[in-house]
Amino acid sequence: MSMAETLKADTDRLFTRKRLTNFAIPGAVLAYLVYVFFAFDVPGLAQRASLENARTLVADSYSYKTHVTRDNRNGEIEVAIEGERKGRYPEGTAPDWVAMGETTQIDLGDGHVVFFGPETITYDIPGYGLVEATPGRSGVNAILPEGDLPDWINASKNRLAITTEAGRVTITRNRSEVFRYFTGWELFWFTLDSPYHGLSTGEVATRALSGEAGAIVSDIWNNGMWRHKDVVWAIFETILMAFLGTFGAAIVALPLAFAAARNFSAFGALRFAMRRLFDFVRGVDALIWTIILARAFGPGPLTGALAILVTDTGTFGKIFSEALENVDNKQIEGIASTGAKPIQRYRFGVIPQIVPVLLSQILYFLESNTRSATIIGAITGGGIGLMLTQAIITQKDWEEVSYYIILIILMVVLMDWFSGWLRRRLIAGDESGR
Question: Which of 145, 195, 277, 347 lies at a CB distance of 3.0 to 4.6 Å from 129, suitable for a disulfide?
Answer without folding.
Answer: 145
